[in-house]
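Chain X:
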Amino acid sequence: MIQHRNIGHNWQFTDSQKELLKKYYGANRLLLDCLNSDCYVSRDVRKNIEDTLLLPIKSIPKVRL
């Protein structure tokens, strides 16, 4: 419900915030392209990416590799 309230909101981002959003989008696009290609990704890694793709960094549990 909260997300729907933000639709149409006149967001005012600084240039540095816009640049960070572009980098965030690019990184997520790269992950999706990789997942949709024929590169090998284990089921665990794929699930972790899919479960955390759009979460804020502070909401993503730390994973030790």
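Chain Y:
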Amino acid sequence: MDLISSRTIEITKLGMDGLMDRQHAISSNIANVMTPDYQRKEVAFESQLAEIIEKEDLKDYIKGQNSIKYVPPNVDVFTGEIHQYRTPTLQEKAYLKSNTMEDYKPQYVTDIYSGPNIDGNNVELEREMMDLSKTGTQYLVLSNLERRQFTDLGNVIRGQ
């Protein structure tokens, strides 16, 4: 793990962006609660974040398997196996240089599964208010995590 790792900061930023888009969709749903034939909107981004985290974990694994530090081969006294570090393949080098976060884009989805009211509108105000509260809480948690990262980074810089 790098001393100054931006992975947590980048992933929390992406999560906060997705939550902000979700909050906009919920606000739009609330604003259109009385609009005939309006179909509520949702924002999906969690699976994209999970995929980014998996890719970043794979990068960490590749880095761990391919140390650039030279160590003479060690012979295991019990099995006779020779343990040595290897250099990454060209594919692994290309993967390590790739930006796994560049394709991230929260998806706006129309909710077709909720049953419409008499006027064709499928927005339920109570559900939207609960979703708004949940989204706000999730945003608060991520912003606190990011604040802690910056506090820790500031402490390292100050030598504390």
